[in-house]
Amino acid sequence: MMAAMPNALARFRAVVGVGWVLLGLTAAVYARMKAIPAWAAIPIAAAFLVEFPFYLLPAFAPERLRSPWLLAGTCVVPYLVYSIPTGEFRVGGFVLLAAIALALSFWFAILPRSGIVDLLFLILPVAVFLSKVFETIYLSPIPRLPVAYLGHAMLIRASVTAIVAVRGEPGVEFRFLPSRREWIVGLRWFAILIPLCGIALRALGIAQLRPQPAPPLLALGEIVGIFWMVAMPEEFVFRGLLQQWIERWTSSPVAALILASAVFGCAHLAFHNVFPNWRFAIVAAIFGLCCGMAWRESRSIQASMVTHGLAAALYRVFFV
C-alpha cells in the first residue's frame, strides 16, 4: 500500500496538471463566447480550478482528507476564491455553506456506525441538492452564469470522501475510468435500456425530440459532464451504496435491485421542474433497473456508470 501511494499521487498530479490546462482553455473560450468580463471570469475560473483537485482526490488518495476539519475547510475555499473578488460574498451564505460542509465532514466522525446513520447520511446530500440551496449561496455576478455548479461539485466529492475516507466503505470504488470488462457490461445493459426506456417514454407521452440534435462540440461537453458529474456520483450513491447496503441487510439481491431502482425513480420526481413528475419517475425507475443489473453483473459502479452516462447523454443530445 505504501509503495502504491506515491504512484497514485504521481498520477493525481499529472491528471490535475492536464485538467487545469484543459479547464483553463475551456473557461477562456466560454468567457469569450459569452462576453464575460475578466473581473468576473478570472475569479470564477480560479474557483473551479481550486475545486478540481479536491474533486479528483477521492479517486486517487482519499486518505489525504480523512480529517473532518480539513475536509470541511476545503469545502468553503472555492466559494471564498470567487465570491470575495466578485463582491458576491454574503455572511449568511458562507455560514450556511459552512454548516453543510461540517455536517458532511463530521457525520461519520461523531455518529455511531449503523444502518440508520448510513441511510440518513445518503438523504442529507440528496436533500441539499433538491433544495436548490446552492443557487442562494453561490450568487452569480453575471446573469445566467451557473456558478452553483461549484457547489454541486463540492457536495459530490465531500459526500464521497466522507464515505470512503472518514466512514471507510470498502465495497465501492470511486474511479473515473472503467475497465474493458466494465465497458462491455455497461454497453450491454445500455443496449437493453434504450428500447425499454424508449417504449416507456412514448407510452407515457413524455418523449419530445429536439428540432435538431445538439451541436457536436456541445454534445461532447454534455457527455463528459454527464459521465463524471452526474452518472458517476449517482451510481456511487444508488448502486454502489444503497443497492449494496440493502442487499447486505436483506440478503436479497432482487429486493435490493427493486428498492434501489424505486428510490432512484423517486429522486427524479422534480424532473423538468414539474413536481410530482410521476411519469418521468417511472421511466427513471426502469432506467435504474438496467443500471442496477449492470452493477450486479460487474459489482462495480463503473459498469453502471457506462450504462447511465451513455443513456443520459443520448437523452440530452436528442430530447428536450
How would you sum up this structure, described in words?
This protein has two domains: 164 residues, no CATH class; 139 residues, no CATH class. Helix content is 76%, strand content 0%. It has twelve helices and no strands. Helix 2 runs antiparallel to helix 3, helix 4 packs antiparallel against helix 5 and helix 11 packs antiparallel against helix 12. The mean pLDDT is 91.
SS summary, helix count: 12
**N- to C-terminal separation?**
47 Å
Backbone structural class: mainly alpha
Query: What is the arithmetic mean of pLDDT?
Result: 91
Show unreliable segments. none
* Envelope shape: globular
Biggest pleated sheet: none
How many domains, in number, for the residues? 2
Oligomer: single chain
CA radius of gyration:
20 Å
Beta strands, count: 0
What is the H-and-E element order?
HHHHHHHHHHHH
